[in-house]
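Working notes for the structural subgroup meeting. M.R. asked for a predicted model of this chain before we commit to crystallization trials. I am recording the input and output together here so anyone reviewing the notebook later can reproduce the run.

Input as submitted:
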Amino acid sequence: MARNDVSRILWPPARPSFLLKIHVPAEATMEGIKSISSMGVYPVAAFGLLGIERLLYGYVYHFPSHFKTEVKKGTFGKAIQEEPLYWKCFMQLGIYVKVFQYSVCSYDLLKRCTLTNPIWDAANAGDSSVFLDQVTSSQGKNFWAGLGLIGVGQFLNYSVFKALGGIGVYYGWELGYKVERVTAFPYNTGISDPQYWGVLSTIWGVYIALGASSMQTAWIETFWYIMSMKVIESPRGKKILEFLGFTNMG
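Returned structure, recorded in token form:
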């Protein structure tokens, strides 16, 4: 409980009678506070760090002229300033912010979660037969399902890059380059934003295959990517920005 919250309980002195009947040991209260605090720090930090990538994409999508101006000014660093192709500047920034995504997921999986999967268990046991026993048992179903999701996700990502090329993936059209309209796979399947679904499929596949004890980070990623598809990088997002007055960032 924060100091301000304590002061509100202790003041005014004439408290409601029901508060006088509640007796909570100080030790239990402090343990509860520590527990809540420890639970709350990671989700908030992960939510913010994982959102950086999606907000960057939304920024370039809605304000490409402003992005180009900032590149010329050297806002994103000298190396990016010296790159003559704006879509490659964006690509480089995209690689940089991926560090946040990889770092959060790696920390979550290796430090916060308990992992239960054939590879991990065999390594801990120092016995390769453990791997063979588990992959052929009912416990191996999640492992194979996770690998399947990873395969689907990476195939979608590969297909998007093959169809659009780097210039298409990194908003070449929005940044003023000629980009041909694509109707080849996976854009002829009816799947909207196949690259983003590919990323989500990969993330969920990793967590499921490794048998992670918590899917909290995967859900945070799902939130941000769906927000990108439905709001941040969409006409809805443009309407919201116009409503907030962000219309003259050129």
